[in-house]
Amino acid sequence: MLSTSAILGYGFPEASLRAGLDRGPHVIGVDGGSVDPGPHYLGIGKPFCSPIAISRDLRLMLNAAVRHGIPLLIGTSGGAGGAPHLALVAGMAREIARQDGLHFRMALIQAEQDKDSIRRRVAAGRVKPLARQPVLTDETIDRASRIVGMMGTEPFMAALDAGAQVVLAGRASDPAPWAAAAIHAGLPPAPAWYAGKMLECGATPSIPKGHDSLLVTVREDHVECEPMNPARRCTPLSIANHSLHENSSPVHHIEPGGMLDTSECRFEAVSDRAVRISGMRWIPAAQYTAKLEGVERAGYRSICVCGTRDPLLIGRIDDFIATVRQEVAAKAEAFGAPPDSYRFGIRVYGRDGVMATREPVRDATPHELGFVLEVVSRDSQEMASAVLGMARTNMLHTDFPGRLCREGNMAFPFSPSDIEVGPVYRFSIYHVMELDDLLEPFPIQYESL
Fold it and tell me: Could you give the maximum distance between any two Cα atoms of the chain, in Å?
């Protein structure tokens, strides 16, 4: 199986794709998205990669799949896997097929969930919270802007059974398309899911790490990984390192329908560029579950970036920020923004900007500090920008003891200084739903192009 890159739209060298195709893969594919960029893209219904970049990658892959007569599988299409994300990539596929004269049967697997269906599952006691989330309520469901379910292998296998050559899916477990292809071919789930864990990130398991193509061969009791770019190579350490990523446990990977246990895995170099992995186990779950991801709108955001290298200001920065906060609270309330209607944050880069209160290094005095001012208004974009404008003005002009500069305190890299970011979303649903019919939440539509 050939994976072109970590995510559709991240790009890959055409030479790597050609090298992979020369090896005669049975399947080509790519992960289409991730939850890593946060809740915004699911809520707003747009991709986090450029549509221009997505279309470029998709065109190369569609032509390769059709020319070689092999399936093309993509999960979490469009970045977040909701209905508008899937529709975007499907529209691209139709246009590419028209422009390039391609003919294929395409399956679209929806992952966006109907709210009434979720309510019925909650009422039946078939939805459970994850990660210390509260019990899901009808009110939380009602507020959700969009809810997706994370599918496993079964919808992909159903699409392949129905003769689809191109399968575009909404939100899916990252390894699921690959695991589905291998299991559909008659291979055991343990090496199939492990292969998916490698392929979901393209050539990331290789060194040097990069967005490039990876070929994985799946056999009954092991898998072999090899990057297609001669500038990269897989080593036992790079593969073992990658197998630990994005999971709360280093060896137990929970997936829809079971757990991939890698605690007994063995890593063996079969060449200076390829690694064989064996010893993985698949433990079926007593109850099949699929994760739900839902977001709700939290308000509207405006931001501003500025910085200072005034040593007198840096020496009393905490008192200065406290004064600015007091001024902003009083002046914002005067024009109709009470403190409980917005959130005002100041990220200080050069001191706690990345780790905040968890920062372990506190023994150095920086010579310059950067600030990101953020206001999230509960009510409107206009009010977020109004409060931010007051914050920016007070960062610029608030006096402090010993101040020598009688002009502004801050340097601003941009004009306009204030940036309206737009709607802000937060995760509100992070639960699992119990399933008996593994295809029911993920309807499939077919079309011939």
Answer: 76
